[in-house]
Automatic annotation (TrEMBL):
GO terms for cellular component: endomembrane system; plasma membrane; plasma membrane bounded cell projection; postsynapse; SNARE complex. It is found in: Membrane. This is Syntaxin-3. GO terms for biological process: exocytic insertion of neurotransmitter receptor to postsynaptic membrane; intracellular protein transport; vesicle docking; vesicle fusion.
Length: 284
């Protein structure tokens, strides 16, 4: 993939140049190797976050299916949540660092290596936002289902609450205050225990959401600012299919011409010669 993107960027650079342009040389190999090592580390972090989201969803399902929250499951959930936070911070910080380096480039013309770096950075930033959005959606779904369980338990006791009333109770954040409002409704201990457990689940979840909020907004704004770069990359990827097909066709023509040129009685058509044959590789 990296080599393919390199080819796309180099091809695009050639198409943008006029005959009088002087091609700016690519940075020394060791600098690009260091950059690609960073890119691979970010990609690995994002992939691990994606894997952990699957585990988070499984644990959410276990918690919702049990009347009360099991401590072992809660510990597992906390461990995976902390791992996601650690990986996300690592990916965010590295993406921001690369962004600052790229922004400090003041050259009038952008060299091939800068093009490659911007493309890779834009692709990973977009991927990061997609994965974190997926995580946020899983959190919101779990919160809604937990709130639904509380509402059903209250309905069983004959205490009906609207969404607005329940949200006000949850926003208090204090379990004692929350349960005090429903103690006089003749609710059973089992139902009360489940309501308290769901309330604690929601409080833990909201704390996690708040911790990730600023980071998510930070990277989302970064991707928004790079929208044109991402669109250009996707356009180049679509065009590359046509480029390759044309290149293959031209190569076949060249091979056929070379084969015919070896025949003793070859008749050279006007306007064509062996030295004049060129393969028509795409330049735009």
């Amino acid at each position: 993939l990296l080599n393919f993107l390199l080819w796309l960027c180099m091809s695009k650079q050639k198409s943008d140049q006029t005959p009088d342009d002087v091609e700016i040389p690519v940075e020394k190999k060791e600098f690009m190797d260091e950059f690609f090592a960073q890119i691979e580390e970010i990609r690995t972090s994002i992939d691990k976050i994606d894997e952990n989201i699957g585990e988070i969803k499984r644990l959410y399902s276990v918690i919702l299916s049990a009347p009360t929250s099991d401590q072992k499951t809660q510990d597992e959930l906390e461990a995976v949540t902390n791992e996601i936070k650690k990986l996300a911070n690592n990916a965010r910080n590295k993406l921001k660092s690369i962004e600052q380096i790229l922004a400090s480039n003041t050259e009038e013309r952008v060299s091939a290596d800068i093009r490659i770096k911007k493309s890779q950075h834009a692709i990973l930033a977009k991927r990061f936002v997609e994965v974190m959005t997926k995580y946020n959606e899983a959190q919101v779904e779990f919160r809604d289902k937990s709130k639904g369980r509380i509402q059903r338990q209250l309905e069983i006791t004959g205490k009906t609450t609207t969404d607005e009333e329940l949200e006000e109770m949850l926003d208090g954040g204090n379990a004692a205050v929350f349960t005090a409002g429903i103690m006089d409704s003749g609710i059973s201990k089992q139902a009360l225990s489940e309501i308290e457990a769901r309330h604690k689940d929601i409080m833990r979840l909201e704390s996690s959401i708040k911790e990730l909020h600023d980071m998510f907004v930070d990277i989302a704004m970064l991707v928004e600012n790079q929208g044109s770069i991402i669109e250009r990359i996707e356009s180049n990827m679509d065009q590359s299919v046509g480029f390759v097909e044309r290149a293959v066709a031209d190569t076949k023509k060249a091979a056929k011409f070379q084969q015919e040129a070896r025949r003793p009685n070859l008749v050279i058509q006007p306007g064509f010669s062996r030295s004049g044959w060129k393969t028509s590789w795409p330049t735009s």
